[in-house]
Specification:
- The protein has 214 residues and is an all-alpha fold.
- Helices cover 73% and strands 0% of the residues.
């Protein structure tokens, strides 16, 4: 006997639903427990009890507590990705798109820190540990910024010699406002001050992109 949960037994009657529906239901339960009680409140047993199934069946969908918690962060990031992808695909000029995208990423995180600090802490952990959930988001963010830059080059809004170097320049320039670990360190900074500082950095960055400095 290993003491490990049986992950191959018959499913509960309550689990006779499409896999996606069960995933969503379990994530919603786990996310609410995280919001109310923090990471320690999210256990496979507690989520299983709330869902009316055995913990062995929860393991069919999430291999561990860590996997479940990362999935909560990934779910939030997916919503942010949808928003910024819509901006990148929108009709605005490239410079306006870039300004909007960076502002939304920055303030989505600050809003999360204020409204759901327990989820923010989990999200920041994925970044500090460079876990796959955060690496995927960072890669998507870089791709969308690169897409906007490519559009800006084509429309003569930007003069850029090296697109990849320009993406790094942009993310480095605004790292204080878009990297969750640093956002958490600046939690006490008043929002109006954040807005002024970020606006200054974005305007300076856009000027560099337009002038061919990068």
């Amino acid at each position: 006997m290993t003491g490990k949960p049986d992950r191959s037994g018959p499913a509960d009657k309550s689990d006779n639903r499409p896999r996606g529906a069960t995933d969503t239901r379990l994530l919603a339960i786990a996310a609410e427990r995280l919001r109310l009680g923090g990471r320690q409140a999210v256990t496979v047993v507690a989520v299983a009890d709330a869902a009316g199934m055995t913990h062995a069946n929860v393991y069919r969908y999430f291999q561990s507590k860590a996997t479940l918690i990362d999935a909560i962060a990934a779910q939030w990031l997916k919503g942010l990705e949808v928003t910024i992808a819509a901006i990148a695909e929108g009709p605005d000029p490239a410079d306006a798109k870039l300004e909007t995208l960076l502002s939304i990423v920055a303030f989505a995180q600050r809003d999360l820190l204020t409204d759901n600090p327990n989820l923010f802490a989990v999200y920041a952990d994925t970044a500090s540990g460079s876990r796959p959930v955060y690496r995927r988001f960072r890669a998507r963010l870089h791709h969308l910024i690169g897409q906007i830059l490519e559009e800006g080059i084509g429309s003569a809004v930007f003069e850029i010699g090296n697109r990849e170097q320009a993406v790094i320049y942009i993310t480095d320039a605004v790292a204080r406002f878009i990297h969750p670990v640093v956002v958490g360190l600046d939690a006490q900074m008043p929002r109006d001050m954040v807005e002024r500082r970020l606006d200054t950095l974005i305007r300076t960055t856009l000027r560099a992109l337009r002038s061919g400095f990068v």
